[in-house]
Automatic annotation (TrEMBL):
Biological classification of the source: Bacteria, Bacillati, Actinomycetota, Actinomycetes, Micromonosporales
UniProt domain UvrD-like helicase ATP-binding: residue ranges: 12-293
Top EC class for this record: isomerase
Residues of the HRDC domain: 631-711
Residue sites binding ATP per the record: 33-40
Name of this chain's protein: DNA 3'-5' helicase
An example Gene Ontology biological process: recombinational repair
C-alpha cells in the first residue's frame, strides 16, 4: 500500500499527456515532446512510477542521454522521486563503462588501449603521410569527416561513395579525405590507441560476437530510455539494438523539429520511423509548452508550420501555458554595428530594470558573429560570457593574425590603404579574400579573419582629425599601426573576467538551454540560412535552427537583421524563415527625411489575443485573432459603425471601403478601443485616418448615437 501510494504521488501535477506517457504499458513507447513541454519530468516520472509500483527494478534501467549535464539532471530528479540507482549516462559513458569492465575477457588479458581525447594530432600526421598539409582548422574538418564516416558505419574504402550520396561538403577532394581516413586508422593501430567511435564499436562487437558478454549485459539492463532520440546516429542505434537484443521495453523521447545535428551523422529517421519499426508502439505527444509565453509559442509555431520534409511529418503545434507576455519584436538595422549597438543598449536596459544578466542571451548562426556583440557589450559595460566557443580575440587564428599585422608594419608601405594592407598582411597566415573554404572549422577560421578585414574597412572610414592650429584641423588616414593599437585596445577590454553575464552563443550550442530574454540576431539571407545550405534538406535544417532559437526564450524575444554587413555595404534580404509581415506602419525612424536611410525599423509581431498564435495574414492581424478563434463582436456597435461609415462615405462621394474596410469595422466592434493609442494599433488605421475619423469612432465605441457624430458637413480629403 505504501509503495502504491508513492507511485500515485508521482502522477500528481502531471498534465493529461504527461500522465499518458508515464502510465503507458511496458513495450515500445515514443514520446514526441515539443520544446518546453516537460519531457524530462515525463520520462523520469515514467521510470519512477514503474519502479515504485514494483513493475521494474531501478538497477535494471539504463537511461541514455546526449550530455553529462542531462544525465546528471535525470539522476537528480529520480533521487528526489525516491528512485536512486538508475544508470543515467551518455552513450559514450555507458559504452566506456562496459568496455572497461569486459576488457580482460574481450582482450584476453591485454590492457585496454588508451582513449584519444582528440583526433586532431593524429589526423594532422595522417594528412602529412598522404601528402596533404593541414593546419589546425583543416585537421579539425578532416577529423569531423572521419567522425561522420565512423558514426555512419562507413569504412575508408566506402567513404567516396557514401560522401557523394550524403552530399557532403568535404574539406578536400573526397578521394584524398578517404586516404587521410585510412592513414589515420593505421596510425591509430600502430600507436595502440582508440577513439570514441572505436569505443562504441567495441561495445557493439563485445555484445554481438560474445554470447557470454551479451547475456550479462542484457541481464543487467532490461528497460531502456533514450532522450533526444532525433540526434541518434547509426552507430549509436546499432549499440542500442545490441543492448536490446530483440526485446522491446524501450522508451524514446524526441522532437523532429529540433533535428539540427545532421552534419555530424545524427538522423531523425529512427524517431520518424519508430511506429513503423515497432509495431504496436504507444505514441504520446506533449504539446503544452510551460517554458514560453503564448506570444513566443505562437511565433515558433508560425515558423515551423512552413517546414517540409520527413521531419515535418512529426511537427508539433505547441500550446502556450504561461500567462501572456510582450509581443516578439522584429528589428531592422542599416548595418551590423548598428544592430550590435542596439542589442547591447537593450541588454543594459534589461539589466538595469532588474533582469539578471545570466537570464539574457544573444544567439547567432556562427561563432564568427560574436565579435561585434563582444565589442558592443563591452562598450555598454554589460558583462557577458561566451558559450561553447572562445572569445573572438582569444581564438588561435585571431591571435596569429594580430602577430602578422604587427609584423606587417615593417614591410608594408605606410601609404597603403588600410583595408588593402590588412588583406596583404593576412596572406602571411594563409587567408585570401576569395570564397570561403569547405569544411566547418576552416570556413569559421576564414570568417573570423574576414571579420578583421571588415573591422579595418570600418576603422578606415573614420580618419583621425589632427589639429594644426588654433582654428584649423586636417584629416590623417589611419595606418596599419593605428589599427593594431585599436585591436589591442579591443582585446584588452574584452579580456575582463566575467562570471554572471549575458550569454553569447551559437544556435547550435544553445540547444537545451533557456533564458528569460533572447536576442536572435543576424537573421538575413546568406547567414540564416547559410549560403552553404544548398539542398532542400539543408535549408530545412536551417529553419529548425531558428525554431530552436525562438523556443529558448521564456518571455522576451527580439529578432533582428542588418540590411548591410557594414555601413554603405551591399543590401541584404531578411531570412526567408521570418514571418512575412506588413511593414507599412512604423517602418521609418522619426526624423529620417527624404534621401536618408533610416537607422532602424521596428515591426511588431502580432499575436492572436485569444490563443496567442502569431498572425501573418493581413485581415487576421487587423482583427487581432485567428479566423478560427471565437469572435466577441459587439453586434449593436458594429451596426452603428456600418451606418456611420455609410453616411461619411456618402458625404465624401467615395466607396464605403475608402473610409474603413469591412474587416476594420469588425476589428473595431470586437476590440472596442477606448483611446487613440488603441485605435491606431489596429492595422489599417494610420495617423491620417486617426485624424479624420478617430474622434467619431471613439465616441461611437463609448456609446454615442450615429446622429451625434455625423454633423451636416463633408469631410475634406486631401489627395
Amino acid at each position: 500500500m505504501v509503495v502504491h501510494s508513492a507511485s500515485e504521488r508521482v502522477l500528481a501535477g502531471l498534465d493529461p499527456e504527461q500522465r499518458s506517457a508515464v502510465t503507458a504499458p511496458a513495450g515500445p513507447v515514443c514520446i514526441l515532446a515539443g520544446a518546453g513541454t516537460g519531457k524530462t519530468r515525463a520520462v523520469t516520472s515514467r521510470i519512477a512510477h514503474r519502479a515504485l509500483s514494483g513493475e521494474i527494478s531501478p538497477r535494471h534501467v539504463l537511461a541514455v542521454t546526449f550530455t553529462a549535464r542531462a544525465a546528471a539532471e535525470m539522476r537528480s530528479r529520480l533521487a528526489v522521486l525516491g528512485v536512486p540507482g538508475v544508470q543515467a549516462r551518455t552513450f559514450h559513458a555507458a559504452a566506456l563503462r562496459q568496455v572497461r569492465y569486459f576488457a580482460p575477457r574481450l582482450l584476453e588479458g591485454r590492457a585496454m588501449p588508451e582513449l584519444l581525447d582528440s583526433k586532431v594530432r593524429l589526423v594532422t600526421l595522417a594528412a602529412a603521410k598522404v601528402g596533404l598539409r593541414a593546419d589546425r582548422a583543416a585537421a579539425r574538418d578532416l577529423a569531423g569527416e572521419i567522425e561522420w564516416a565512423k558514426s555512419s558505419l562507413v569504412e575508408p574504402g566506402e567513404y567516396v561513395v557514401a560522401a557523394a550520396k550524403a552530399l557532403r561538403d568535404t574539406p578536400h577532394e573526397p578521394a584524398k579525405v578517404a586516404d587521410v581516413f585510412a592513414a589515420y586508422e593505421r596510425l591509430k593501430r600502430s600507436n595502440g590507441v582508440i577513439d570514441f567511435e572505436d569505443m562504441l564499436r567495441a561495445a557493439v562487437w563485445g555484445i554481438e560476437e560474445h554470447r557470454d558478454v551479451a547475456e550479462q549485459v542484457r541481464a543487467q539492463y532490461r528497460h531502456f530510455v533514450v532522450d533526444e532520440y532525433q540526434d541518434v546516429n547509426p552507430l549509436q542505434q546499432r549499440l542500442l539494438q545490441a543492448w536490446l537484443g530483440g526485446r522491446d521495453d524501450l522508451t524514446v523521447v524526441g522532437d523532429a523539429s529540433q533535428t539540427i545535428y545532421s552534419f555530424t551523422g545524427a538522423t531523425s529517421s529512427y524517431l520518424v520511423d519508430f511506429p513503423r519499426r515497432h509495431r504496436g508502439a504507444t505514441v504520446v505527444r506533449l504539446v503544452r509548452d510551460y517554458r514560453s509565453t503564448p506570444q513566443v509559442v505562437g511565433l515558433a509555431n508560425a515558423v515551423i508550420s512552413q517546414a517540409r520534409g520527413a521531419e515535418a511529418r512529426l511537427r508539433l503545434e505547441l500550446v502556450g501555458q504561461r500567462p501572456p507576455g510582450p509581443e516578439p519584436e522584429l528589428r531592422i538595422f542599416t548595418d551590423e554595428p548598428a544592430e550590435a549597438n542596439a542589442v547591447a543598449a537593450r541588454c543594459r536596459a534589461l539589466v538595469e530594470a532588474g533582469t539578471p544578466a545570466k537570464e539574457i542571451a544573444v544567439l547567432f548562426r556562427t561563432n564568427a558573429q560574436s565579435e561585434a556583440y563582444e565589442k558592443a557589450l563591452t562598450e555598454a559595460q554589460v558583462p557577458y560570457v561566451v558559450q561553447g566557443a572562445e572569445r573572438f580575440f582569444e581564438r588561435a587564428e585571431v591571435r596569429q593574425a594580430m602577430v602578422a599585422l604587427r609584423a606587417a608594419t615593417r614591410s608594408i608601405p605606410g601609404e597603403t590603404p588600410l583595408p588593402a594592407a590588412v588583406v596583404e598582411a593576412l596572406a602571411a597566415v594563409g587567408w585570401a579574400p576569395d570564397a570561403a573554404p569547405a569544411g566547418g572549422a576552416a570556413r569559421e577560421r576564414w570568417e573570423a579573419l574576414a571579420a578583421l578585414v571588415q573591422l579595418a574597412e570600418e576603422y578606415a572610414a573614420t580618419p583621425e582629425v589632427l589639429p594644426i592650429g588654433p582654428a584649423a584641423a586636417v584629416e590623417r588616414p589611419v595606418t596599419l599601426a593605428d589599427f593594431n593599437d585599436e585591436l589591442a585596445r579591443r582585446a584588452a577590454a574584452q579580456h575582463v573576467p566575467t562570471v554572471d553575464g549575458v550569454t553569447l552563443a551559437s544556435l547550435h550550442s544553445a540547444k537545451g538551454l533557456e533564458w528569460d530574454a533572447v536576442f536572435l540576431v543576424g537573421l538575413s539571407e546568406g547567414t540564416l540560412p547559410t549560403t552553404y545550405a544548398r539542398t532542400a534538406e539543408q535549408v530545412e535544417e536551417e529553419r529548425r535552427l531558428l525554431y530552436v532559437g525562438i523556443t529558448r526564450a521564456r518571455e522576451w524575444l527580439w529578432l533582428s537583421y542588418a540590411s548591410a554587413r557594414s555601413p554603405g555595404g551591399r543590401a541584404r534580404r531578411p531570412s526567408r524563415f521570418l514571418p512575412q509581415l506588413d511593414r507599412s506602419g512604423g517602418a521609418e525612424r522619426a526624423g529620417a527625411g527624404p534621401g536618408r536611410r533610416p537607422e532602424r525599423r521596428r515591426t511588431q509581431i502580432v499575436s492572436c489575443r485569444i490563443c496567442g498564435a502569431t498572425l501573418l495574414a493581413g485581415p487576421d492581424r487587423k482583427l487581432g485573432r485567428c479566423p478560427t478563434c471565437p469572435s466577441d463582436i459587439d453586434d449593436e456597435l458594429h451596426e452603428r459603425l456600418r451606418e456611420w461609415r455609410q453616411r461619411v462615405a456618402g458625404g465624401q462621394r467615395v466607396p464605403a471601403y475608402v473610409v474603413f474596410t469591412d474587416a476594420t469595422l469588425v476589428a473595431l466592434a470586437e476590440r472596442r478601443p477606448a483611446r487613440a493609442e488603441e485605435l491606431i494599433a489596429i492595422a489599417g488605421i494610420g495617423p491620417r485616418k486617426l485624424g479624420l475619423y478617430g474622434e467619431a469612432v471613439l465616441a461611437l465605441v463609448a456609446g454615442a448615437a450615429v446622429d451625434d457624430v455625423c454633423p451636416e458637413k463633408t469631410f475634406e480629403i486631401s489627395p
